[in-house]
Amino acid sequence: MRSMLLLLCSAGVIAAQSQPYGFGQPATAADTAQKDLTVFPNGKGLPSGKGTADQGAAIYKEKCAECHNEKGEGRPGQYPALVGGIGSLTSAKPLKTVGSFWPYATTVWDYIRRAMPFDHPRSLSADEVYAVTAFVLHLNGLVERTQELNEKTLPAVKMPNRDGFVPDRRPDIKSKR
Amino acid sequence: MLWQVPEALRWVAPACYIVQIVTEELTPPRRRFLALGASLAGAVVACRKAPVPSESGAHMRAYGERSPHEKTVRVVRELTKSLGTGSSRTPLGELHGIITPSALHFERHHSGVPAIDPAAHRLLVDGLVERPLTFSLDDLKRFPSASRICFIECGGNSIGEPGANLPDVQKSHGLLSCSEWTGVPLSIVLKEAGLKPEATWMIAEGADAGRMSRSIPVSKALDDAFLAYAQNGEALRPEQGYPLRLLLPGWEGNTNVKWLHRLQLVDQPAMSAKETANYTDLMPDGKAQQFTFVMEARSVITRPSGGQKLAGPGFHEITGLAWSGYGKIARVEVSTDAGQTWADAELQAPVLSKAAVRFRYPWRWDGKEAVIACRCTDETGYLQPTRDEFIAVRGLNSGYHYNGIKPWRVNADGTVTNA
């Protein structure tokens, strides 16, 4: 009994040493699961699931078209377009959309899951997110109607602007006095 | 607040006041009871006698408000039809000193302001750490605290300015504010969880409806980042991230994640929507600079500025703000002849690193049209560019992180317009 107590005490001391103040609670798997939304370009963080553009069309019509319009063309001054602008980035009026600007399909999936539909975010199941993402990418001519997107195939979708980003190269402006 | 006198009974306030002083010694419930009795008694008296207006001024109030004569407000602009996706801008032209009143601090949200119960709010620190932990607000407030005055500027402050010359300083620069923030240094909290050596990035996520998230290099997290629970001496305002926000001194506003509820330690950036689709700088060659975190040095004249009017020739102080995400402002120069000659402005103490600095320059206006401007140099030697110098390198499509010199035209009738 006494040695048990001693053992417990020394365990406490060790914990206190490695955790300088000892504040906070150990996070449980449930704590993480509750907030686990991050998806990385290599697919890490994607839940298993699947969907096609054909399946996504109905979801889009019901849950997205009201704002983003029938074919993802958006509503000028009201809601952003989800299609168009490919090849416009060096023009005087670049149109940045999922199709023309976003470098990773995983980002589209991640954003739709966490933030859309705007008024009911995180109400879609994983399969629905795969399907509606496939539909948005299909509207941009980037996946076929029956092509299945899942945790393996989604990261492999090559976005047109995949190589469009460079690291911060500032200070890039040398001003003269 | 039973012992507060209703507005309608204010003329009997002195009577109540005496009762209150006398009852100060009593225990609070009893005191309240007496004070209530006193105001009721006052009301009865009021019915009998003709009221004599008091000259003794308004009573105390539990939470202060500005004078009803002061009308300065933020200007709200929604960017989509869904409310809560736009910004509200600080009226820099009408403020003094360097601290932005909390009620006028700019806002930029992507999916509205969430209503958060601080007692239920938890910060999760997980991923590549030895000990994944959750912290309540009380836990975080037990750690050693630190306060720092620093600016926050939206990465998109002045979108449109390079091409269009916005007409007043609220529109052109109003996504800049400066506060004293208090919280716990993030390095302390990360030490508590124990960083694994592979942890090079940290995904900071907010509890807003859209769970906005940004990838932050761990080097910044360990440098001067902190978790702020207070702004200008009181709890954060809801629109500033109540009850907890990330504070990254000198970095673009969007990385200072509000309503912070998770820090996920990882070995790569997430390439989230707000660090790819937004807040990246599209260059003339079609490539976009990414992770352009630091706000480069910048200054602007706030008085006289667009929309204001000079009363007439004679003395006018030219004043404004300068700030740099790289450190302290070393120098601010003012020109009153459209940039032909420049003279040093006086920097008002305190001159703090990554904070707004107030500058002043005495000017005698001769009543003729004049173009006034300022430019700053920070402690790294970086000189604020002209608009043309900026456009020559980044073109007109970069949008974010514009920091060119802003000239104002003082017209012969005293009105001030963009130049």
Description:
- The complex is a heterodimer of chains A (177) and B (419).
- By secondary structure, chain A is mainly alpha-helical.
- Helices cover 36% and strands 5% of the residues of chain A.
- Chain A has a domain at 49-164: Cytochrome c-like domain (Cytochrome Bc1 Complex, Chain D, domain 2).
- Chain A has six helices and four strands, in the order H-E-H-E-H-H-H-H-E-E.
- In chain A, strands 2-3 form a two-stranded antiparallel sheet.
- Chain A is globular, with a radius of gyration of 23 Å.
- Chain B has three domains: 12-49; 75-289, Alpha-Beta Complex (Sulfite Oxidase, Chain A, domain 2); 298-418, Immunoglobulin-like.
- Chain B contains eight helices and 24 strands.
- Chain B has a five-stranded mixed beta sheet with strand order 5-4-13-8-9. In chain B, strands 6, 7, 10, 11 and 12 form a five-stranded antiparallel beta sheet that branches. In chain B, strands 19-18-22-23-24 form a five-stranded antiparallel beta sheet, with no helix packed on it.
- In chain B, strand 4 and strand 5 form a beta hairpin.
- Chain B is globular.
